[in-house]
Amino acid sequence: MRTQNPVFIPGPTNMPDRLRHAMDTQTVDHRAPDFARRFLPLLEDLKTVFGTQLGEVLLFPATGTGGWETAVTNTLSPGDEVLAARHGMFSQRWIDLCRRQGLYVHAVEGQWGEGVPVDEYARILAADSDHRIKAVLACHNETATGVTSDIAAVRAALDKADHPALLFVDGVSSIASMDFRMDEWGVDVAVTGSQKGFMLGAGLAILAFSPRAIAACRDARCPRAYFDVEAMREANRAGSFPYTPPVGLINGLAESVSLLLDEGLPRVFSRHHRIAEGVRRAVDAWGLSLCARRPALYSDTVTAIRVPRGFDSNALVHHAYEHYGVSFGAGLGEVAGKVFRIGHLGDMTDVMALSGLATAEMAMVNLGYPVELGSGVAAAQRYYSATRNRWKREVA
Ligand SMILES: *Cc1c(COP(=O)(O)O)cnc(C)c1O
């Protein structure tokens, strides 16, 4: 018997049984050769997921936030200037983290519901003729607002200004679910975590560093100890870790990557797109609108939905959990109480998505929203049934 309904939060995501089993392991001697035999190919395979051949993948026992700290402290020095935008909770947290590290942040105030303000970035970079800005930060998928930004356009802004700043991308809720092209987009550090697209529990920060980012580690003076990239790379070269690795999670990640590569990344991405599109059709049928302002910004991993005036989205999220045992994402920061979020990334099927939509409808109707039972579900059903693929059962 299942004791839990699927979750519809944008992380941690639903965990396939195959991954849970892979993590259930007896004590492993991480200095024995079989650890290296499993671990080193994993680092190679992860490059495919990041879309990099030039970069190097690094794993730290941490979450995405620890991944950001790793990116910043290993490549920059106190007082360095960085360019960032605040257009959601996650981009805001990255700005805070940089300031606490003693960096000077040019924080562009963006709209919650808009993407990275590329034109503003282009203007600031072009004006920075002394190249005081050492790094540019971009959140690929702002999980708080359900907005995906155009990273290729950020790269183009850097190139157009002939600016040498490093490009750091938060891909925590996009990598492994949406197309990510580290080399093509000229990303210098890409950051993600184990609990979103990789369908595991929290506990691993997963990063890729470009050769330029690795070179920057030599002169960077921000203090780092636990998150020291050079110490990690040196240990990794010998197939080991500078400290005790979380072997269960690493086994889970190896299984996750093989699940993703077996499905095929293009198929993983198109599955996310289809599921997201069905959810968007449902939202439209409810007569509600998205937090994301334009279709070009719509996220394929999380949908943030504005509730009608006079309603509290947090009460809706609470009601769905209390009455139906289903978790949706609450509104965060500036959109707290105003939006609720449906996470649809990772281990997700049409059928699971429909159950989430049906639950959201029941909760809204219970709370007096002007929404008709079945309206959103029917819109999603029409879309899913018209675009269906042959069902392929995953062998556990
Ligand atoms: C979840 C998330 C994070 C934070 O990651 P933690 O693993 O909770 O530290 C950062 N950025 C984005 C875009 C996220 O979705």
UniProtKB/TrEMBL annotation:
Belongs to the class-V pyridoxal-phosphate-dependent aminotransferase family. Gene3D superfamilies: Aspartate Aminotransferase, domain 1 (3.90.1150.10), Type I PLP-dependent aspartate aminotransferase-like (Major domain) (3.40.640.10). This is Serine--glyoxylate aminotransferase. InterPro entries: Aminotrans_V_dom, Aminotrans_V_PyrdxlP_BS, AspGlyoxATase, PyrdxlP-dep_Trfase, PyrdxlP-dep_Trfase_major, PyrdxlP-dep_Trfase_small, SP_NH2Trfase/AEP_transaminase. GO terms for molecular function: alanine-glyoxylate transaminase activity; L-serine-pyruvate transaminase activity. Substrate binds at residue 341. PANTHER family: ALANINE--GLYOXYLATE AMINOTRANSFERASE 1 (PTHR21152:SF24), AMINOTRANSFERASE CLASS V (PTHR21152). Its cofactor is pyridoxal 5'-phosphate. Residues 42-329 form the Aminotransferase class V domain. Keywords: Aminotransferase, Pyridoxal phosphate, Transferase. NCBIfam families: AspGlyoxATaseBhcA. The modification N6-(pyridoxal phosphate)lysine is found at residue 196. It comes from the Bacteria. It comes from Salinisphaera orenii MK-B5. GO terms for biological process: glycine biosynthetic process, by transamination of glyoxylate.
